[in-house]
Every structure is written in C-alpha cells, then in structure tokens.
Design a protein that fits this description.
Elements: E1 2-9, E2 14-19, E3 24-28, E4 43-49, E5 52-58, H1 77-83, E6 85-86, H2 88-102, H3 107-127, E7 132-133, H4 135-154, H5 161-164
Parallel strand pairs: 6-7
Antiparallel strand pairs: 1-2, 1-4, 2-3, 4-5
Helix pairs in contact: 2-3, 2-4, 3-4
Length: about 170
Amino acid sequence: MDGDILAFDDDAQQGVVEATDGQRFTFQLSDWRGRGLPGPHIAVRFTPRGERAEQLINRPEAQLKARASRPHPPQDDARDAASHRHSGFAIAAISVAFLSMFLDGQAPLLGLVAAVLGVLGLRQIHRAPQRYSGRLFCWGAIGLALLLAVLSVLVDPSMPVESSIQPPH
C-alpha cells in the first residue's frame, strides 16, 4: 500500500503514515526499511497489519525522461580572461626590446633577438588565438627593434663627437 508519512517523533521512535485512501497507520522505527531516517512528507510503500504499518520503504519513483541537451551558454568574461593569457614570446620580445634601448653597444644584437622573439610570438598567437594574446607587444617589439637598428646605423657610437666638428678655414 502507498502513502505518506505525516509525522515521526524521534524521542518515541514512532510515527504516523497516511495511506492514499485516507486511512492512518502507526509505525515504529524498527519497521522502517527506507533510506535515511523517516520524516514528514516522505512518500512510502508499506504493508498494513491492523492499525500498524510494517516494512516501510521509500516509494519507488518513476524514472525521469532524458532531456535533450542544450548547448552551453557563452562563457562570461571572467572565465574567458582566465583562459586567455599573453604569449611568453610576446612578453620576452617587448622586454628585450626595452632592454636594448638602455644598452647602447649591444642594441643591434638585442634588437635582432627582440625582433625574432616578436615574430615567434606572432606565430604562436596566430596558431592559438583562443589561448594567447599579445599581438601589440610583438609588433611593438619589432618596431622598437627596427627603430633602434636604424638609429644605431645613423648615429655611430664609435665616432667621437669632436672629430665630426671641423673648424672653419
């Protein structure tokens, strides 16, 4: 017989169950065979014996039908930003380009390294744009390396300033 538990007293370890036809039966905790502890509003199946209910178990529930899966909603900006990071090559390229500005004698060599790292960074970003960012760093490093190379050719640091100025005749 099916019914619902109306009440259960933990101290007395007994409760009342109401059948679907409205009859009420009492039961002891020792009659409970269901999951967890009995409590109000639990649907049960039981065996009636006079005014007592025995062998109380949770009423089996019908299996729910499977729903068609919906596509995942677009990710929010916080999760997207966490998975989107700057390319290591891009950060290295801009760092080496700025370093080459302060080291006058090594500018052409460091400029070349910055340009190569910038190209590698652009290549990495092009291959995985959903994972990496930093195009601006790469292009900035390449541009700064070219600017420093041009300036180092125009201004030769090995030539002293006094010898370039000739007195008038």
